[in-house]
């Protein structure tokens, strides 16, 4: 099942059976797909549950690594923003860290970009930690270059942690690491930002002058590039994860709330984290992005993004989306269902008097199935039901 959002500029397609992944983001003006859209569903054993897909945009929450729900069902509900625009809310209860999470996807009329508003909720009187990376796959065409609002990076290569400055990285033998095609090995680096109130951005720039950009509000401050490397192993992995016909080559632009994917972010009791991120495309001058030194290329692209959507612009949009994120969901608005564990957790919260369930998410008790029943029995009866271990 897929859920589309569409206006006069953009068409976006989401897959709630696969973690709510944004599968496709097509720009009608540029007449171009802005993401790497995988032509096949080919899971690989690369995630926490050994089930992961390449392509599109994946929402990662919980522990280090690709999220638990990347190949699983999540809830998807269609709501109205009060201005005549429908938007999509995907959500679930994350059992490992006991966090409720939701992503509201907005594509209002007149806007040439998609907005995602993420909200993480710790409703309990105890501290925890959390983790988030928006994992964006972009086509790794010849001479694609990754540009960003900041230049200081953390790199992890050969077991060493280095703090360096883009574009040339000692960790990568001095190559210009902003061009994925320059590397003969898989690599990544995490782009740092010391201003906790900043609005950061990252761009994939192509030889025809088109760009894909993302911009976000705090606390989604940190950006990342991952590339498979121009060697046989990297190409083989990409071909295996796609259709094997050479159409699966991509790089990953990511955005997170902690300095790297080896960091969690503390989440105090009763804490709510939320931010807004936008995704879009533009046509710029290729030589000013690809044939210019890195700082000048970033300045050029940064000015274009500021003209398209400034830090002040996205902050105003964020304020409105914080209000919309409070809208309740009814069971009748749910178009696709996730697990029953959220319903079990809400039952536990009410029995124990432990926190308030978020009204912006609906977890119907009808979703409690075989996987959840034993835990509901433990909650209500104080014991696990007898089971035939050979049948588990």
Can you give a write-up of this model?
The two termini are 29 Å apart. Helix 5 packs parallel to helix 6. The protein is built from six helices and 22 strands. It has a nine-stranded antiparallel beta sheet with strand order 12-16-17-21-9-8-7-6-22. It has a seven-stranded antiparallel beta sheet with strand order 5-11-19-18-15-13-14, with no helix packed on it. A hairpin with a 4-residue loop joins strand 16 and strand 17. The model has no long low-confidence stretch (mean pLDDT 94). It is of the alpha+beta class.
In spatial order, strands of the major sheet run 12-16-17-21-9-8-7-6-22
Number of H- or I-type helical stretches: 6
Major beta sheet, specifics? 9 strands, antiparallel
- Shape descriptor reads globular
How many strands in all?
22
Order of helices and strands: EEEEEEEEEEEEEEEEEEHEEEHHHEHH
Strand percentage lies at 25-35%
Radius of gyration: 21 Å
Structural class: alpha+beta
Q: Which key terms come to mind for this protein?
A:
single chain, 392 residues, alpha+beta, nine-stranded antiparallel β-sheet, seven-stranded antiparallel β-sheet, 6 helices, 22 strands
């Amino acid at each position: 099942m897929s859920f589309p959002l569409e206006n006069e500029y953009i068409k976006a397609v989401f897959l709630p059976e696969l973690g709510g992944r944004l599968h496709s983001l097509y720009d009608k003006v540029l007449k171009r797909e802005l993401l790497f859209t995988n032509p096949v569903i080919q899971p690989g054993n690369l995630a926490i549950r050994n089930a992961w897909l390449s392509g599109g945009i994946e929402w990662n929450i919980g522990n280090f690594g690709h999220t638990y729900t990347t190949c699983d069902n999540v809830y998807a509900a269609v709501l109205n923003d009060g201005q005549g625009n429908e938007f999509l809310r995907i959500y679930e209860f994350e059992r490992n860290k006991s966090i409720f999470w939701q992503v509201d996807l907005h594509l209002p009329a007149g806007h040439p970009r998609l907005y995602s508003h993420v909200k993480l909720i710790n409703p309990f009187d105890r501290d925890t930690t959390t983790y988030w990376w928006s994992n964006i796959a972009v086509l790794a065409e010849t001479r694609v270059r990754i540009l960003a609002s900041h230049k200081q990076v953390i790199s992890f290569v050969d077991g060493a942690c280095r703090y360096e400055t883009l574009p040339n990285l000692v960790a990568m033998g001095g190559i210009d690491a902003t061009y994925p095609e320059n590397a003969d090995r898989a690599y990544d680096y995490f782009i740092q930002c010391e201003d906790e109130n900043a609005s950061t951005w990252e761009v994939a720039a192509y030889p025809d002058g088109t760009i894909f950009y993302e911009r976000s509000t705090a606390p989604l401050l940190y950006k990342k590039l991952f590339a498979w490397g121009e060697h046989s192993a990297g190409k083989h992995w990409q071909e295996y994860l796609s259709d094997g016909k050479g159409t699966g080559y991509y790089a990953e632009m990511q955005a997170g709330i902690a300095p790297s994917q080896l960091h969690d972010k503390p989440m105090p009791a009763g804490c709510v984290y939320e931010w807004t991120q936008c995704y879009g495309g533009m046509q710029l001058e290729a030589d000013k992005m690809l044939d210019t030194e890195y700082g000048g290329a970033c300045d050029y692209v940064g000015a274009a993004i500021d003209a398209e959507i400034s830090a002040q612009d996205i902050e105003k949009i964020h304020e409105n989306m914080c209000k919309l994120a409070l809208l309740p969901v009814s069971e009748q608005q749910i178009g696709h269902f996730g697990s029953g564990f959220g319903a079990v957790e809400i039952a536990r919260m009410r029995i124990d008097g432990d926190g308030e369930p978020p009204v912006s998410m609906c977890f119907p008790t009808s979703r409690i199935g075989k996987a959840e029943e034993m835990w509901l029995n433990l909650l209500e009866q104080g014991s696990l039901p007898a089971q035939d271990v050979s049948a588990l």
